[in-house]
Amino acid sequence: MIGVLNGDAALGYHVLPWLQPEVELNYAHEFTEHISDQDLISATVGVVMPLKDCVQLMVGVQEGLWGRNTVEATTYRVQLEWTF
Question: According to a count of CB atoms within 10 Å of the terminal CB, is the N or C end of the chain lower?
Fold first, then answer.
């Protein structure tokens, strides 16, 4: 693999200060040395929960909608982010 290009577009809403539902459209392209580059378009539905000013938790489900030279799969995501 030579590199990866990712793009995300998200739409969310602040229901409560600590609860933010979100829907994302995700695109990933993997550049390879071979002709079989990979493309994947997927959608993610989940919630973002800010725990502190610099920490947030995201829990969601990502579903592959379309793919080329890749597997369209369902992925469960739990992500914890720190910002400085």
Answer: C
Please give the Cα distance from 28 to 10 (Å, whole number): 15
Residues in the chain: 84
Element (H, E) at 50: strand 38-52
Total domains present in the chain = 1
Specify the pLDDT at position 1: 60
- The pTM score is 0.73
Residues with Cβ within 8 Å of 56's Cβ and at least 6 positions away in sequence, in order, are 48, 49, 50, 80, 81
Range of the domain at 33: 3-82
